[in-house]
Every structure is written in structure tokens, then in C-alpha cells.
């Protein structure tokens, strides 16, 4: 039996030790900013490449899809002795993808491939957080983790207007060149400062599960996105849908039977965990439907019967109320969690987000209305995301909480990618042949469809959870909840299982994977 090697604890006595925390924060901020390079640019990309808005939406959807698939992959690969190698490799893919997306070639497929490669970087923040957990003294680790979590939120909020500002004064490819330079700097700093994780034992990797998950999700998203062009009910569409569902069914069968699955689906047997996961994926769908619609709507020229003619900068600023309200609502919900059960708060948050969708469907003709809508929707998202970790931790044994939280984030990220593709599909269906912009009615239909999802989700979150008494959370678990909430609001963070060696504290899991990619 091999001896468990303790991690190397880095102090402030050396320059390398003092530099570790700033480097980790820099990487966290980089990931947050790069993840926000997508949504505000979709109309610009459509115009620049001469593609439809539905096709341009793939510049966001592909990032979310790759993030959903690679989140558990990067988390599992990084949960071993080669975490530094995984961190540098993922940064390398992000940097190479940024260069590819930045190339001024008039080939849309090149941009899509580059954006997909950037999606690999969306799982980096959890690796940074697990590095802080392992290699810093407890007090310094706690403050660093709190800083990293807030950095994720702040970085996303800053990234939206920053993207627009760069695009307005320079070619939009400039933002990707900047991401490439910052990514290269992150690689150099990581190699110079970040310690190795040789104290961790190698973990088996579920390659079959990763391949099946990727193929199944990609097939479904292609079917959702291309259904209008192929024809709903066409043989090609039916074939892709059936094949994708069979692959996903095979993935579920495989994950339930392998000893160390990529995603531990067995945790769904608990009804409260199932509630949090169903709510997570459906809330993710609604969130990205609203994000995608709002960006396209506000940038629609005023020469049409609708639209606000906003610049990329202004449309980016319109996303800031969503981030700010989400963050504030999560803090309020977490504080109220001492007195109000999460199972009571969750449907309220979902309905609050639904109210934002109804407002968008009925009152979106002025910019100030858009800001109010995004704030209301953000409050709903923030309060919902804040209670999911507490629900899961209160319903699962300590040794299963980390894996259960990882599952919730993976499913939520899947919802993001589905919502992005679904919004594009509905708007494309309401776009006349040869027209660039959809009819105004398309936004109303899409918003009401998303609201219908919210009603179903609220009903599920009310009726499905177990009603047994929640177990009290430990101090470590309360800290994990706080970290997961901040990261979840940024759409970037979940948990990875702790090592399963004898004597390890499984409840003290480390943060793993996620994506916002907006």
C-alpha cells in the first residue's frame, strides 16, 4: 500500500510563494473575461461573416458545448499528480483557440473551431481553486478561495462591456488576440509559480463516458439548431435525434455501471438531488435563451418595426444587471437559508426568473426596460443557484456531496448549451426567407416558451423534493456552499470529488468544473 504524500505548502517567505496567489487570481480573471467574449458579438459575427443569426449563434453554443463536455474531463484529469500539466495544457488549448478565432480569414468554420477550443478553458478556474486548497495554509487558502469566487463574478461582469468596447473601437478579432496574449502569459506564470500535485494519486479516466457524452450532446444540439433548415420531421433530422438519444442512453447505462464514472448519475436516486438537477438544467436552458434573445434584440436596427439599435458596448452593459443582481440575490438567499428551507426558496427563484421572461415578452421597447428585465431575471437566477448547493448538501451523505455538486454543474452547463441553440432555432423559425432579422413575434414566442419551462420547473421543484429533515452542514461544507454559489453565478464552477484514499476527508471536496461562456 502506497504512502499518502502530503501536499507542498507554499508560504510567503519566498518570491514564488508570494506570487502564487496573484497568479491564481490572474488565471481566474482571465478565464472569466475570456468566457464573456461570446454573447455580445453574435450580431457582429453574423454581419462580418455573412451568415444567419442562427448560424452565428454557434460561436456561443460551441463554446458552451465544449465546456459542458470538458468540465468533468478536465476535472478528472486534474484530480491527480499531473494537475499542473492539465492546467498548462488547457491554457494552451485556450490560447491556440483564441489565435484561431482572431485570424482575419473569411471562413466562419475557423472562428467556430477557435471558439470551441476556448471552451476547454472554461474548466480552468476549479483547477486553480483546488491548487489554492492544496498548497496554501488554511487561513490563506480561505481568503484566496473567496477572492477567486468573487473574481469569477466580477470578471464576467467586466468582460461584457470590455468586449463591446474593444469591438467598437477596433475589429472584433482584437478581443481574441488580447485573449491569446493573456493566455500565453498565464502559461508562463503557471510554469514558473504553480506547484505540482505529486501528493495526489492517479485516478482512472472514463474515456468511454467522455466520448459518449460528447457525441450525444453534439448530435442533439445539431438537431435543434438545424431542424428548421433540414425540415422538422425530415428523415435526416429524425435519424440524428434517434442516434443521439441512443448514444445518451448508452452513456447513462455506462455511467451507472462503471466504478469511477465521469459523472456519477447514481446520485440522482435522491429526490432532492434530482430536483436540484432538473431545476439546474431547465434554469440553464431558460437563462441562455434570455441572454441570446436580449443581445440580438437590443442590437437590432431601429429602422425595423422593433429593436433598439444599441451598440455592442451598450448591449454588453445590459448584461451587467444580470450578473450584479444574481450575485446580490445569492448572498441574500444564502443568509435567509438559516430560516427558510431551500426547497421553499427554489420555486420562488424560478418564478422570479419567469417574471423577467414575461416582462421581456410584453415590455421590451425601451432600453431602461431591458435593464430592469435583466435585473429581475438575475435576481431569480441568483436565488435559485444559491439554494441548489445547500439542497444537495443537506440531502446527501458527506462523502457524496462533492460528486453530487459536480453532477449539478455539469447538467446546468448542458442546459446553457441547449438554451443557446434553442433560442436560435425559434428565432430562425420566425425569420422570413432571405431576411437577416427575425420577426418581432419570434422574440415573444421564444420568451413565452422559456416561461413555460419555468412554470414546469417551479412545479417540479415544489412537488418532487423529499420532505425529510435536512442534516446540518459542517463548517467546511458551509464554506463550500459559499464558494460554489459565487462560482455558479459566474457559470464557471462546480466541485470535483476529493481523493478517496484512506483517511481523506471526502466532505472537503475541491472545486472542479463548469462554463458560462457568454
Task: Provide keyphrases for this structure.
518 residues, single chain, globular, two-stranded antiparallel ribbon, disordered C terminus, mainly alpha, 71% helix
CATH hierarchy, class: Mainly Alpha
State the major sheet: 2 strands, antiparallel
Domains (count): 1
Strand content: under 5%
Question: What's the average pLDDT?
Answer: 79
Structural class from helices and strands? Answer: mainly alpha
Globally, the shape reads globular
- Counting DSSP E segments of at least 2 residues, the number of strands comes to 2
Indicate the percent of residues in helices: over 70%
Give the number of helices. Answer: 19
Q: What would you say the CATH architecture is?
A: Up-down Bundle
Q: Order of strands side by side in the largest beta sheet?
A: 1-2
Order of helices and strands: HHHHHHHHHHHHHHHHHHHEE
CATH superfamily: MFS general substrate transporter like domains
Q: Rg from C-alpha positions?
A: 22 Å
> Termini, distance in Å?
46 Å
CATH topology: Growth Hormone, Chain: A
Give start-end ranges of low-pLDDT stretches: 492-518
Amino acid at each position: 500500500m502506497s504512502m499518502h504524500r502530503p501536499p507542498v505548502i507554499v508560504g510567503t517567505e519566498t518570491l514564488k510563494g508570494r506570487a502564487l496567489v496573484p497568479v491564481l487570481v490572474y488565471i481566474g480573471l482571465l478565464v472569466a473575461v475570456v468566457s464573456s467574449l461570446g454573447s455580445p458579438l453574435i450580431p457582429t459575427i453574423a454581419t462580418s461573416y455573412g451568415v444567419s443569426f442562427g448560424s452565428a449563434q454557434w460561436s456561443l453554443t460551441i463554446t458552451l458545448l465544449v465546456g459542458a463536455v470538458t468540465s468533468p474531463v478536465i476535472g478528472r484529469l486534474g484530480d491527480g499528480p499531473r494537475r499542473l500539466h492539465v492546467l498548462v495544457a488547457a491554457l494552451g488549448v485556450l490560447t491556440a483557440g483564441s489565435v484561431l478565432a482572431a485570424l482575419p480569414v473569411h471562413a466562419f468554420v475557423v472562428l467556430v473551431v477557435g471558439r470551441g477550443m476556448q471552451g476547454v478553458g472554461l474548466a480552468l478556474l476549479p483547477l486553480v481553486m483546488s491548487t489554492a486548497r492544496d498548497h496554501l495554509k488554511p487561513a490563506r487558502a480561505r481568503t484566496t478561495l473567496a477572492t477567486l469566487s468573487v473574481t469569477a463574478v466580477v470578471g464576467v461582469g467586466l468582460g461584457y462591456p470590455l468586449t463591446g468596447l474593444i469591438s467598437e473601437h477596433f475589429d472584433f478579432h482584437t478581443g481574441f488576440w488580447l485573449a491569446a496574449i493573456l493566455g500565453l502569459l498565464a502559461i508562463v506564470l503557471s510554469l514558473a509559480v504553480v506547484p505540482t500535485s505529486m501528493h495526489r494519486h492517479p485516478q482512472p479516466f472514463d474515456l468511454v463516458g467522455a466520448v459518449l457524452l460528447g457525441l450525444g450532446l453534439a448530435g442533439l444540439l445539431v438537431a435543434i439548431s438545424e431542424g428548421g433548415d433540414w425540415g422538422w420531421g425530415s428523415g435526416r433530422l429524425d435519424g440524428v435525434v434517434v442516434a443521439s438519444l441512443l448514444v445518451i442512453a448508452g452513456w447513462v447505462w455506462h455511467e451507472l455501471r462503471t466504478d469511477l464514472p465521469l459523472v456519477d448519475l447514481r446520485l440522482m436516486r435522491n429526490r432532492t438531488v434530482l430536483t436540484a438537477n432538473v431545476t439546474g438544467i431547465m434554469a440553464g436552458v431558460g437563462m441562455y435563451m434570455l441572454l441570446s434573445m436580449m443581445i440580438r434584440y437590443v442590437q437590432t436596427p431601429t429602422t425595423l418595426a422593433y429593436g433598439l439599435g444599441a451598440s455592442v458596448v451598450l448591449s454588453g452593459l445590459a448584461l451587467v444587471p444580470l450578473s450584479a443582481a444574481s450575485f446580490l440575490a445569492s448572498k441574500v438567499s444564502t443568509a435567509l437559508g438559516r430560516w427558510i428551507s431551500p426547497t421553499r426558496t427554489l420555486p420562488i427563484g424560478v418564478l422570479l426568473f419567469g417574471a423577467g421572461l414575461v416582462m421581456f415578452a410584453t415590455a421590451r421597447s425601451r432600453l431602461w426596460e431591458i435593464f430592469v428585465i435583466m435585473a429581475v431575471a438575475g435576481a431569480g437566477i441568483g436565488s435559485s443557484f444559491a439554494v441548489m448547493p445547500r439542497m444537495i448538501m443537506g440531502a446527501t451523505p458527506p462523502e457524496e456531496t462533492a460528486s453530487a455538486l459536480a453532477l449539478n454543474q455539469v447538467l446546468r452547463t448542458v442546459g446553457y448549451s441547449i438554451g443557446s441553440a434553442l433560442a436560435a432555432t425559434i428565432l430562425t423559425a420566425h425569420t422570413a426567407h432571405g431576411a437577416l432579422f427575425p420577426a418581432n413575434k419570434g422574440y415573444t414566442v421564444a420568451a413565452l416558451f422559456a416561461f413555460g419551462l419555468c412554470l414546469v420547473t417551479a412545479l417540479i421543484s415544489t412537488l418532487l423534493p423529499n420532505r425529510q429533515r435536512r442534516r446540518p452542514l459542517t463548517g467546511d461544507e458551509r464554506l463550500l456552499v459559499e464558494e460554489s454559489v459565487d462560482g455558479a453565478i459566474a457559470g464557471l464552477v462546480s466541485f470535483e470529488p476529493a481523493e478517496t484514499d484512506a483517511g481523506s476527508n471526502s466532505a472537503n471536496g475541491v472545486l472542479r468544473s463548469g462554463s458560462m461562456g457568454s
